[in-house]
Structures are given as C-alpha cells and as structure tokens.
Amino acid sequence: MEVTTVDNQAAEIQAKAKKIIASRANATGLCPVRDILGRIGDKWSMLAILHLGSTDSLRFSELRKRIDGISQRMLTVTLRTLETDGLVTRTVYAEVPPRVEYALTGLGQGLLGVVIPMGSWANAHAPAIAEARQRVAAA
C-alpha cells in the first residue's frame, strides 16, 4: 500500500488531536480544552475578540455598535469574563464623563491568531452548513 501526502497529513492531524485529548487535566483538575473553549466559545466572546482585534482599543459604546444584537448587559458580562481570563484590558480614564476603553492583551492577541482562521473558515463554509441544515430539517 502506498502512503500519500494526504494520508500523512491526516495521520499528523489525528496524532495532534490525540495529544490534546490525552492532556485532559491541568494542575487545577480542569480539562483545559473544555474550560477555555467553554469560556470563549459562547455566543459573543469570539465576536468581541475579533472586533477588539480589528483596532488598538474600543470604547464600550463603539464595541456594542459593532456587535449586532448584543445587549448592554451581555456585553458587560462578556468583557468582564474576558478580562478575568486575562484576554482583555479595561482602562478607565479620569475624565468627566469617565472614558473606558477595552483592548486585547498579549494573550488575547495570541487567541486572535486562532480565532481569525476560525472566522475565515466559518465565512467560507456558511453556505454549505446552511444547506446541510436545510436538508436535515426537510428530512
């Protein structure tokens, strides 16, 4: 049997997936994959990360305008979570009225490097996914 480049790539990807799965628990006993993806994989976090990554910093109101459909409360919760995880910084300027800006940290910039390909993949494959959903719904 001849092994092709595609076979080798599939084997490498499978080996990487197995390695990630094998490292289930970190020092806190949490599965790092489940923990982190659970935090950033919610409805709004990736959009916030993408928008913050598209500029140096954004004020709360600017970010809310850019993320279609997010409520003020949900954006507040999302930004607090991202700040708690060290992905976003919140800077308050002593002005009247106070000005608050949000920006990605170095850790957030690293995550942005992963989120951008995911966003590109989602944009490229959205029609195929919508088609598949319609087929399943019609069945």
Topology, element by element:
Elements: H1 5-22, H2 32-40, H3 45-53, E1 58-59, H4 60-66, H5 72-84, E2 88-93, E3 99-104, H6 106-138
Structure notes:
It is a single chain. The mean pLDDT is 88. β2 and β3 form a beta hairpin. The protein contains six helices and three strands. It has 139 residues and is mainly α. The protein has a three-stranded antiparallel beta sheet. The radius of gyration is 19 Å and the shape is globular. It is 64% helix and 10% strand.
Shape: globular
Helix content: 55-70%
Which stretches are low in confidence, meaning pLDDT under 50 for 5 or more residues running? Answer: none
- Element-level helix/strand string: HHHEHHEEH
Span of the ends, CA to CA: 39 Å
User: Which structural class best describes the helix and strand composition?
Assistant: mainly alpha
Number of beta-strand segments: 3
The CATH class, by name, is Mainly Alpha
Mean pLDDT: 88
Q: Number of helical runs?
A: 6
Number of domains: 1
Share in β-strands: 5-15%
Main-sheet strand order equals: 1-3-2
Task: Characterize the largest beta sheet: strand count, sense, and whether it forms a barrel.
Answer: 3 strands, antiparallel
User: What is the name of the CATH architecture?
Assistant: Orthogonal Bundle
